[in-house]
Amino acid sequence: MRPGLLLKVAALVIACTGQASAQSMTPMRGTVTSFTDEFAVRVFPKNPYRRPVEVAVRVYDETFRPVEARISPPSMMLAAGASRPVVVVVDFGDRNERRVRVCTESVPFPEGKTRIRAQICGRFLARRVR
Amino acid sequence: MKKALLAATLLAAAAAPAGAVTETMTFSGTIAPVCTITVDSPGVMAPDSALAELSTTQAGGSAGVATIQTSGTSFNVSTTAPSTFSTAPAGADANVTFAALYSATGATTLTDVAGATPSPLGQGTTTLNVDLTATKSSGTFPDGSYSADLVVTCE
Fold first, then answer.
1. Could you report the per-residue pLDDT of B57-91, keeping only the tens digit for each?
2. Closest partner residue to A123 among B46, B144, B155, by Cβ?
3. Is B19 among the domain residues?
4. How far is CA A118 from CA A80, A96, B30, B79, B154, in A?
5. How do residues A115-125 score in pLDDT, each as one tens digit?
6. Is residue A4 part of a domain?
7. Which residues are registered as beta bridge partners of A114?
8. Is residue B18 assigned to a domain?
């Protein structure tokens, strides 16, 4: 066994120059008042760089547990400099107030070049008015 | 005659120079709170001599580097280490624990903060260095290629 060669491991890879992934999103704070059993948040993921980036939008609670939500679209390829609206609809369930994180995440490239995922999370408070 | 005088008066009034008037034109703008993360250099894990640890802090390894730009001081950064390798040879994930540490320079100054601990970010540009260590509690890492996904979060 030649440890130096055999276990020369590339992990955490962001590998090549120009393969950097970036993430940005607005808004990152918000309060929503809803008169229905659901509330909606519209966010704008943005790719501020000069190459396309694939991003996914996910919803979590305060403790980063996934929250069931309708996300449209849940993932997309953003062209260089592009931004597009994503609508997130979350059910209140039996609660009158929900705090959620809506996160835009970069998707690692399938060839395994990008292994640090950038995650931008906005915090939103929703209140139901009955 | 009266008509002529009235016309002359009106003409004189119209020809009189207007008094100077100034008015302030106000421009407004808003910067929404925004955070941008750019992952901009590779992290490389290297083994220790006993092959029981793979780490960016071992000789031959290097930390992952990300640049974080924030528009205000209401943001926090944290990292989430993986629980398994994304790709690895068979048996590599057995008895392995991952730990991440991050340090920051620039708008934020931090040293070796445990990955899951959120830290407030200063306004401006922060350079984040992230170290990742995989440790086997028993056995050794087999030879092969490894990769691991680590998440850097700004919120």
1. 999 999 999 999 999 999 999 999 999 998 899 98
2. B155
3. no
4. 17, 32, 25, 10, 8
5. 788 899 999 99
6. no
7. A14
8. no
